[in-house]
Write a structure and sequence with these properties.
With about 170 residues, this protein is α+β, with helices and mostly antiparallel strands. It has 3 helices and 9 strands; from the N terminus they run ββββαβββααββ.
Length: about 170
C-alpha cells in the first residue's frame, strides 16, 4: 500500500481496548513511547502476527499486560475496524477497536508504556490526544460503541485526515 505521494510504508495491525470504571469514566494511558508519545489514548498494542494471534486474543493479552484485568472474549465487543494510511508518516495501521464490558476496579499502576488516569468524556476533550482520535476515534466510540462500523482514514502528513465510513451495522 502507498500513500498519496507513493511512499511505501510498513503495515501494522493493532487493537485498542476501551475500558471504564464503575462510575463510567474511561481508562486512558499517557503514552511514554511512539506512536502517540505524550498523548492520552485507550490501552492496546500490536498483534503478535508471527504467533498467529487474533485481534480478540491480542485485546485480552494487552488488557491483562497493561491493567492486570483478566477478561474473556464474551466481555469484549468489537465495535470498529479502522484502516489508517500513513499515520504520522511512519506506517499504515489496521486497528480493531473493542469495548470491554467488565469494569476496571481501580487505577492500574504505571508501566513502561505509560501511566493511567480515569476521565469523563468531557474531560477527554481537554486532554492531549492524537488528532485522529479527536476527529474519528472518540466520535466513533460515542456513536457506534454498541454497534459496528468500518472506516478508513488517510493520515498523510501535511493535510487534515480524510475519514470515510465504509460500513455500519446496527
Amino acid at each position: 500500500m502507498t500513500t498519496r505521494n507513493d511512499t511505501v510504508l510498513p503495515f501494522k495491525i493493532s487493537v485498542l481496548v476501551f475500558l471504564q470504571n464503575g462510575q463510567g469514566k474511561e481508562l486512558l494511558m499517557c503514552r511514554r513511547k511512539s506512536p502517540n508519545l505524550g498523548c492520552w489514548s485507550p490501552i492496546g498494542g500490536k498483534l503478535k502476527m508471527e504467533a498467529g494471534e487474533s485481534p480478540c486474543q491480542c485485546a485480552i493479552r494487552e488488557t491483562h499486560e497493561e491493567t492486570g484485568l483478566e477478561i474473556s472474549p464474551e466481555e469484549l465487543h468489537l465495535f470498529a475496524v479502522i484502516s489508517e494510511t500513513a499515520y504520522e508518516g511512519t506506517g499504515h495501521w489496521l486497528m480493531f477497536l473493542y469495548k470491554c464490558r467488565k469494569p476496571v476496579g481501580k487505577l492500574p499502576e504505571a508501566i513502561t508504556e505509560g501511566h493511567f488516569g480515569f476521565f469523563s468524556r468531557s474531560e477527554i476533550e481537554t486532554l492531549n490526544i492524537p488528532e485522529t482520535d479527536r476527529l474519528a476515534l472518540w466520535p466513533l466510540y460515542d456513536q457506534y460503541s454498541d454497534r459496528f462500523v468500518a472506516l478508513r482514514a488517510d493520515c498523510t502528513p501535511g493535510g487534515k485526515p480524510e475519514i470515510v465510513i465504509e460500513e455500519i451495522f446496527d
